[in-house]
Every structure is written in C-alpha cells, then in structure tokens.
Amino acid sequence: MNDPFLQALGSVGYLPAAVLRLHSTEGLYSGQCDIEPGRGVLVAFATYLAGFPPSGNDVDVSVSIRARGKAMSWERDFGGHCTTSHLTYDENRKCVREDFGAISIWLRPAWQNDALHIEIHRLTIFGILMPAFALPRSRTREWQDAQGRFRFDVSARAPGLGLLIRYRGWLTPDHTMQGAG
After folding, report:
1. What is the pLDDT of residue 157?
2. Exposure of 144 by Cβ count < 10 A (0-12 exposed, 13-18 middle, 19+ buried)?
C-alpha cells in the first residue's frame, strides 16, 4: 500500500506505531470524537460541500481505509453521518491531494514536536483554484497517545469566516483486511 501521506513524508522511521499503522495498513479503525462545526451560512455551505458531520460530543467514529489503485479511499462514519474522501500523492507538488465531493485540497504533512502536522497547501472548489489569501488555515495533527491509540485533531479556519470544522478524538484498529485492493 502506498499511502499518500507516507509518500509525501519520504522517510518514516520516526513515526510512532499507531500513526504508521493507520497510514500503512488497510483496515477498519474505530473510536470516539468530538465535532465542532463553525457558524454562519457560508460556513454551513462550505462544510456541506465537503460532507462534514454535524456537531456532537463522544460521537462513535469509524474509518475504513482501502487502496483503490494508486489512490486511497477513506470512508468515515461519524455516528451515522458518512463522509468519503479519496487521497492521492501529487508527485508534482510533493503533497497529498484529498477529494471531498466538490472540494479538492492539497495537504503538506510534516513531523514536528512528536506529531504529524498537516497544512493546507492548495484548494479548489468545483475545479476553481482558490487564491492563496483565501486558503483555510489548518492546525491538523496526528500522534500516538500514552495508551498507544492513534489520536487526531483536525481543524480548518477560513479567513474572514473563522472556524469551518474541528473534530478530535482517537482510533484503534478493529481488524486488517489482508489482500484487499
């Protein structure tokens, strides 16, 4: 499996086991998270286009990760609200492209301070490139907690609009699908 995040990072020997496992193994992961969407009509429209979930605390979450040729499919189920994205490695930009319906974002991962930090590098909506000043700012990070669980804190803020979405929580592997793809 060629996970786009691992391709963008290059060397991955420093990644903790839980982060490396999620990014290198097809399978089903489950846990819990808190979801905080932003406020306002424009924010609601943007999060609707991306298929992001509604607000909630201690929401059961599962993520199914599968290889689809050179792409990865991440199917997230936030307490019954499903969001699917497709990820590929953009060799020209040396980053990850993630497609959520009408929205495509290019993500640049970097390992810093014992966490994988992911920044938004580029964005298109309905195929239209957004100017750099309009790019959402991300404080997304992934790490391994003291219990050995994969932890995530995904967030994006848009200039002039504020918070678009933030969801944070943990995942553990349910099982690994051998030979899938």
Report:
1. 93
2. buried
Q: Which tokens sit at 180? A: 């899938």
pTM above 0.90, yes or no: no
Q: What are phi and psi of 23, to 5 degrees?
A: -90, 0
Q: Report d(CA 53, CA 85) in Å as an integer.
A: 13
Give the tens place of pLDDT for each residue, 107-164. 999 998 889 999 999 999 999 999 999 899 998 999 999 999 999 999 999 898 899 9
Residue of 16, 51, 72 lying closest to 167 (CA atoms):
51
**Spatial separation of the C-alpha atoms in residues 123 and 134, rounded to whole Å:** 9
Cα–Cα distance, 161 to 163 (Å, whole number): 7
Pick the closest to residue 5 from 83, 105, 95, 99 (CA basis). Answer: 95
CA 53 – CA 61 distance, rounded (Å): 11
- Among 73, 108, 109, 76, smallest CA distance to 88 is for 73
DSSP track, 130-173: PPGGGPPEE-EEEEE-TTS-EEEEEEEEETTTEEEEEEEEEEEE
Tokens of 176: 């690994």
- Rounded to the nearest 5 degrees, what angle is found at the Cα of 25, between the Cα atoms of 60 and 14? 100
